[in-house]
Amino acid sequence: MNPGGMDRRVTIERYTATTDSWGHPTKTWSTLAEVWAQKKEVRAVERTEQAQIVALSFTQFRIRYRNDVDTTMRISYGSQYYYITAVKELGRQEGLEISTEFRD
After folding, report:
1. N or C: which terminus of the chain carries fewer CB neighbours within 10 A?
2. Residue ranges of the chain with pLDDT lower than 50?
3. 23: which DSSP letter?
4. What is the distance, to the nearest Å, from the Cα of residue 63 to the centroid of all Cα atoms in its chain?
5. How many Å apart are CA 29 and CA 12, to the nearest integer?
6. How far apart are CA 32 and CA 102, in angstroms?
C-alpha cells in the first residue's frame, strides 16, 4: 500500500442511539476516527426511485488497517456523507478498501 497516495483527510462515523432530556430516543452519528485515505471514484448512475430521479455515486476509500470499521458506518469527506457498503482487507492487515455509496 502506498501511503503517499493517501492525501484525503476523512472522518469515519458510527451510528449511535441516545436519549434526549425528555427520554426520547435520538439518532446521531459520532466520530470513530479521523484518518488519511486515498479516494477513487468507481462509477455513477441515475435511477428512478419512488417517481424521483436519484443520482448514486460509488466510491472506494483506502485507509490503513483498522479492525473496527464495518457496514453500519459512514465516511464524512468535505460536506458529503458516503455510506459504507463493504469493507475488504488488503494484504495481511496492511489496509482496508472501503466501498461506499453516495446519494444525491
Report:
1. C
2. none
3. S
4. 11
5. 10
6. 19
Q: What are phi and psi of 91, to 5 degrees?
A: 65, -150
Task: Give CA separation, 86 vs 18, 30, 74, 93, in Å.
Answer: 26, 20, 11, 16
95 and 64 in contact (C-beta within 8 Å)?
yes
Query: Which residue type does 2 have?
Result: N
Torsion of CA 9, 77, 1, 71, to 10 degrees: 130
Joined grid coordinates for residue 48: 428512478
Please say whether the beta carbons of 75 and 10 come within 8 A.
yes
- Check residue 42 and give its pLDDT: 87
Torsion of CA 82, 87, 91, 93, to 10 degrees: 90
Show Cβ contacts of residue 63 under 8 Å, excluding neighbours closer than 6 positions: 6, 10, 35, 36, 37, 38, 69, 95, 96, 98
Q: Is the pTM of this model over 0.90?
A: no
Judged on CB neighbours under 10 Å (0-12, 13-18, 19+), 61 is buried
